[in-house]
Structure formats: C-alpha cells, structure tokens
C-alpha cells in the first residue's frame, strides 16, 4: 500500500531534512524524491520537488518538469510551462528535449512559430543521435522549411533516418515502427514496399498505437498495394477512434453509414 501525504507535508518534511545539507546534495535528493513521487503517480508532489531541484540546476529536473506539463500527468497540461522546461532541458543537451522544442517551434505550441529555430533544434537533436530528428530534418530540407531547400541533403537524411527507424522498430518502439512503415509506403530513404509498410503498421497497430491503426485502416480501405478489406479497415478505425484519434473518426464515417458508427 502506497501512503500519500498532502503536498505541503511532503515539501515541508523534505525541506526540513535537507536544510543542513549542501546545495548539491540537497538538490539531488529533491530530484530523486521527485522521481519517486512521479513513479508513484503523486504528480503534484513530484512537481514541487522537481521545481526545487531545478532551482539548483539539478540535471534532469527540467526534463522531468517538461514531461509533467506536456503529458498532463495530474498537474494540468500547460503548453507554455512545457515549452519553458523543454527549452531549458534542450539547452542542457537533452536530446529528447531538443526534439520536443523543435516541434514546439515548428507548430507554434507554447511559443511563437519559428521555423529557423525548429531547424536548429532538430539539428541539435540529430547531432545527439535522436533517431526521429533525422526524419524531421529530411522533411525540412525537402520542403525548404526553415532552411535552404537541398534535395541531396534531404535524401541522405532520409536514408540515415530509415536505418535508425529500422533499429528502433526492431526493438519494439511503436513510433519508429509507424515511421518506418510510412517510409516504406512512400519510398523515403528506402525502396518502396507496400508489404513491408503493411507489416510494420500492423505490428504497431496490434500493440495499440492509434496512428498506426489509422494508417493500416487507410491502406486496407483502398487496397493500395495490398488486398482491399473494408471490414478490417473499419475495425482498425474503430480502435483508433476509441483512443480519440480524430482522423479515424472522419474516415470511419465515410466507410459506413453514420447510424452504424458506434464508438463506446
């Protein structure tokens, strides 16, 4: 049984215990206790403890605060706070934070849209080995978004991305499986192969990844390179729609009459 103490009690006790410690050891202790609170889903206490650790520049605290505010784990989704902590973690060299900040700048989430900053942070993330960043950079160079259009550089990045996605897809990462399927479907950095696309979409979809469920249904609904199967397409759309995937709901209404759509 996990005991949950009120937030003020947790912070008061930890502050009292660490009052006579040096700054470094105290901040590390706040960070470690914050991780424990996070793992126990006591998110308010985790946020309070991680904030104290972050004030003393404890590595990792800013990244965990980014996760708390972006994932909306009990503390309330806050895009501006999420961006603030993601930016700080990115500046401290955290690859995932760099990738996240790039996406914020690309979409204008939590900050003003800035395509050059998006390209900069995707580059930093890629330089730190973030596998998804290679694909995003390839897209930017292909379209001339935030950078000078460069087809050769885009192709090289697509090829690197395909190799990276394959490694992480084999390890079971759903987002990589979905991205690899997309690259097979569209021949990006790898030879077009609809059977491979179908197989990787199916693998991620079967694990509950909503975007892959939608993409698999999309292929099945029009028989693009595989056998058409609208019944299966409807099944996967229903699974994705139950998870709130809006595009799945839209396509589902097109494949069957409105009065037959049941998403409980």
The coarse silhouette is globular
How many beta strands in the DSSP annotation? 0
Largest sheet: none
Based on CA atoms alone, the radius of gyration comes out at: 22 Å
Order of helices and strands: HHHHHHHHHHHHHH
Q: How much of the residues is beta strand, in percent?
A: under 5%
Helix content: over 70%
Q: Please, what is the average pLDDT?
A: 87
SS-based class: mainly alpha
Gap from first CA to last CA: 33 Å
Give the uncertain stretches in residue-range form: 7-24
- The number of helices is 14
Summarize the structure.
The chain is an all-alpha fold and 264 residues long. It contains 14 helices and no strands.
Please explain how this structure is put together.
The chain has helices at 7-17, 23-39, 43-55, 61-71, 79-91, 95-107, 115-127, 131-143, 151-170, 174-186, 194-206, 210-222, 230-242, 246-255. Mean pLDDT is 87; it is low at 7-24. 70% of the residues lie in helices and 0% in strands. It has 264 residues and is an all-alpha fold. It is built from 14 helices and no strands. Helix 11 packs across helix 12 and helix 13 runs antiparallel to helix 14 (246-255). The longest helix is centred in the middle third of the chain and has 20 residues, at 151-170. The two termini are 33 Å apart.
Which SSEs are present, and which pair or pack?
Layout: H1 7-17, H2 23-39, H3 43-55, H4 61-71, H5 79-91, H6 95-107, H7 115-127, H8 131-143, H9 151-170, H10 174-186, H11 194-206, H12 210-222, H13 230-242, H14 246-255
Helix pairs in contact: 1-3, 2-3, 3-4, 4-5, 5-6, 6-7, 7-8, 8-9, 9-10, 10-11, 11-12, 12-13, 13-14
């Amino acid at each position: 049984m996990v005991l949950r103490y009120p937030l003020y009690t947790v912070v008061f006790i930890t502050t009292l215990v660490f009052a006579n410690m040096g700054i470094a050891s105290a901040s590390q202790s706040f960070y470690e206790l914050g991780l424990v609170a996070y793992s126990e889903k006591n998110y308010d206490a985790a946020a309070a403890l991680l904030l104290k650790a972050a004030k003393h520049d404890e590595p990792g605290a800013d990244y965990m605060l980014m996760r708390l505010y972006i994932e909306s784990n009990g503390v309330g989704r806050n895009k501006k706070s999420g961006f603030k902590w993601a930016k700080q973690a990115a500046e401290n060299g955290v690859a995932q934070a760099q990738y996240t900040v790039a996406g914020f700048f690309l979409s204008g989430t939590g900050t003003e849209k800035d395509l050059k900053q998006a390209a900069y942070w995707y580059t930093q993330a890629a330089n730190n080995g973030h596998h998804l960043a290679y694909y995003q950079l390839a897209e930017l160079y292909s379209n001339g978004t935030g950078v000078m259009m460069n087809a050769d550089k885009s192709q090289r990045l697509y090829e690197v991305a395909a190799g990276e996605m394959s490694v992480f897809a084999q390890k079971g990462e759903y987002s990589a499986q979905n991205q690899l399927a997309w690259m097979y479907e569209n021949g990006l950095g790898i030879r077009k192969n609809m059977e491979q696309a179908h197989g990787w979409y199916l693998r991620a979809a079967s694990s509950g990844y909503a975007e892959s469920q939608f993409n698999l249904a999309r292929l099945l609904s029009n028989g693009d390179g595989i056998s058409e199967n609208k019944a299966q397409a409807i099944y996967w759309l229903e699974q994705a729609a139950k998870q709130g995937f809006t595009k799945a709901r839209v396509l589902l209404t097109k494949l069957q009459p409105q009065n037959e759509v049941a998403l409980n």
